[in-house]
Amino acid sequence: MVYTNKIKKLLNSRQLKELKDIKTVIKQKMPESLYRHSIKTMDFAVMLALKHYPDADINEDLVNKACISALLHDYGKILERQDLQDIVSRNVKGLTDFEKTCYPCLHAYAAPYLIKRDFGINDKEIYNAISRHTTGSCDMSGLDRILYISDKLEAGRNYKNIEYLRQLSINNPDLCLLEVYKSNIIYVISKNCTLHPDTSRIWNYICGGYKNVT
Ligand SMILES: [Fe+2]
Asked: How far, in Å, are 1, 31, 125, 152 from residue 168 at the CA level?
């Protein structure tokens, strides 16, 4: 992976070992395609973190959290629908009725419980980034944005306009978030699937944060 190689100089040995251990576990538990997607999402996330958050002090922590979030963002997908629903209804507070039954979102909502249980990860920022990676939110941190974009633009993805979106992620990340969110809404509608009820609020939030630098 092009960018992941750079973390060897940036992260300490404990952080690198944690990442290696996570990779070992997910390689065993995930189907090959999902494992590869997770690794490529991490590579893209490292690229974005290094590009947009060059400050060395912030960078180490952000890069580390971006790597963990990316590797584990789809960890919930190793479970069946009913298991995910049971985990969410027993362990995740504050979800709406829509969220408790929205299958494409369940793996994201179940992830904080699962990664605490299986990896001992106890980090609110990582929990938020993973919980929000399918729907976005009205209050997205830098880490949330990195994971949301990386999941949709990693090197294994291939759809119309993706090269344009990848360029935007480097040159204009605010516009990139807007465009990626837009393409996600269009995709969901094209599949005749339900949209999260907060979609218009999140869209307006992202529009408000978009800075036109051209
Ligand atoms: Fe994903």
From this structure: 21, 31, 25, 13
Q: What total of structural domains would you count in the chain?
A: 1
With respect to residue 208, please indicate whether it lies within any of the assigned structural domains. no
107-139 tens-digit pLDDT? 999 999 999 999 999 999 999 999 999 999 999
Report yes or no on 183 lying in a domain: no
How remote is the CA of residue 214 from the centroid of ligand 1, in Å? 30
pTM over 0.90: yes
Q: Which domain holds residue 41?
A: 4-160
pLDDT digits (tens, 9 = 90+) for 5-58: 888 888 999 999 999 999 999 999 999 999 999 999 999 999 999 999 887 566
Q: Ligand 1 center to residue 169 CA distance, Å? A: 17
- Separation of CA 38 and ligand 1 centre (Å): 7
Within a domain: residue 111? yes
Identify the CATH number of the domain in which residue 38 sits: 1.10.3210.10
| CA of 209 relative to ligand 1 center, distance in Å | 24
117 Cα–ligand 1 center, Å: 20
Answer whether residue 202 is part of any domain. Answer: no
Q: Which two tokens stand for residue 39?
A: 């690794």
Q: Give helix then strand counts, H and E, for the chain.
A: 12, 0
State how far the Cα of 168 lies from the Cα of 172, in Å rounded to an integer.
Answer: 5
d(CA 77, CA 31): 10
Residue closest to 65 by CA, chosen among 147, 136, 132: 147
